[in-house]
Design goal:
With about 100 residues, the protein is α+β, with helices and mostly antiparallel strands. It has a single domain, classed as Histidine-containing Protein, Chain: A. It has 3 helices and 3 strands, in the order H-H-E-E-H-E. It has a 3-stranded mixed sheet with strand order 1-2-3. Strand 2, helix 3 and strand 3 form a beta-alpha-beta unit. The longest helix is centred in the first third of the chain and has 20 residues.
Amino acid sequence: MKKSLLKLLAGTCAAMMLMACAGGPDKRSTGEVIDDTTILAKTKAALVNDPEIKGTKIEVDVHRGVVSLSGVAHSDREKKKIVDTAWGVKGVQSVQTNIQIEPVK
């Protein structure tokens, strides 16, 4: 009897812990937060390590695999390279861009 009660309590505790990690329509799960953080770090690293765009100041945000880019590029070619670099990161679901073009003076 005691063993079955302990199993029931252990199962209930495990279910409650899993529910605490679950997301909802407006809240990301723990796994989604970890995934987004990984995508964010990899995207920033890819942008910094690319010699064609590493001097460009681009803000990156990630929510549920959607990468949002904002900032200024110096040409359409540079903007395309930034977007393509973000798409190249594993786990990216889509890329939204609010990058403005301002040619170098």
